[in-house]
Amino acid sequence: MNAVSAVPAPLLADRQARTRVNRRLAALGVPAKACSLCYTLKGLDAFPVHQGGFRGRLARCKECHRAGQARLRKDPAYRAAERQQQRPYDRKRALEDDRRAYMLGRSQLRRALEVGAEYDGHQPEDLALHWDDEGYYACVCCGGPYEHLDHNVPLIRGGSHTLDNLLPLCQDCNLAKSGKCPYRFYAERFPALKPYLAPFFDVHERLTEEELAAREAAVNDSSEAA
Ligand SMILES: [Zn+2]
Ligand SMILES: [Zn+2]
User: Fold this and answer.
1) Centroid of ligand 2 to alpha carbon of 150 (angstroms)
2) What pLDDT digit, counting tens, does each position of 71-110 carry?
3) CA–centroid distance, residue 177 to ligand 2 (Å)
4) Residues 6+ apart with CB under 8 A from 226
C-alpha cells in the first residue's frame, strides 16, 4: 500500500526537511515516510523492517535498498564511500558500546585480581578503546548484542586478565561457554570447524594440578562473594 504519493518531492532531498516531514507523518499516524535516497513518500510497508530504525524500518525504501545492495557487491569504491558515510551512526553506537565495555571491565577487574590472574595493568577505559579498535560491537560467538565480558581462556584454566583475553559475549553464549576450553566450545558451536580446532583443545591448561585447584577454589569463592 502506498498511502502517500509515490512521486519524488524535491523538498525532501534536504535532510532536515525530510526529518521534519517524517516526524510529522509519524505524529499524525500516517503509515508512510520519505525514502532517504529517492526522496519519495511511500507507505511504511515499502521499507524493509529494521529494528531501531525510525518507525521500525530502514531509512531507504526496498527498491533503493535492493539497488544499493547490488551495487555494494559490485563496486568497491561505492562500498568504501558507504562505510565512510555510516561512520557518524556507527560512532554513536560505538560510544554506547564503550560505556558498556567500561562498566563490564570495571566489574571483572576486581574478580581477576582476587584470583591472582595475570594482569596487564589495563584500565576499564582501555578495554573500551581496544574493542573499538577491533570492532567488537557484538557477541563474538553469535553476533547478537553482548552483555557479558568473557575471559576467552577462562580464569579457572589459567586465563589472564589481559586485553587479548577479553571478549564480548551475550548471556546465552557466556552461560553455554562457562569454564570450558574456548576451542572445545567453538567446536561445539561450529562443528565444521572441529578438525581445525581440535589440535588446540586444552592447550591452555599449562598450570600444574595444584595451581589449577587453587585457582578453581579462588574463583568459586569470589563468585560466591559476588
Ligand atoms: Zn527509495
Ligand atoms: Zn552470543
Assistant:
1) 11
2) 888 888 877 777 666 555 456 666 777 788 888 888 888 8
3) 10
4) 111
What separation in Å is there between the alpha carbon of 124 and the centre of ligand 1?
Answer: 43
Has residue 150 got a pLDDT over 50? yes
- Give the single-character DSSP code of 39: -
Whole-angstrom distance, CA of residue 34 vs CA of residue 207: 61
Q: What is the pLDDT of residues 111-126, one digit of tens each?
A: 888 888 889 998 888 8
Q: How far apart are CA 106 and CA 68, in angstroms?
A: 41
97 vs 33: CA distance, rounded Å: 29
Predicted TM-score (pTM) of the model is 0.51
Residue 149's CB: how many other CB atoms inside 10 A? Answer: 23
Domains of the chain: 10-74 (3.30.60.130), 88-225 (no CATH)
> CA-to-CA distance for 197 and 155, rounded, in angstroms?
20
d(CA 16, ligand 1 centre) in Å? 17
Ligand 1 mean position, distance from CA 74 (Å): 20
C-alpha cell of 116?
591472582
The ligand placed nearest to the CA atom of residue 37 is: 1
Give yes or no for a contact between 126 and 163, defined as CB atoms under 8 angstroms apart. yes
Q: Which residues contact 190 (CB under 8 A, 6 or more apart)?
A: none
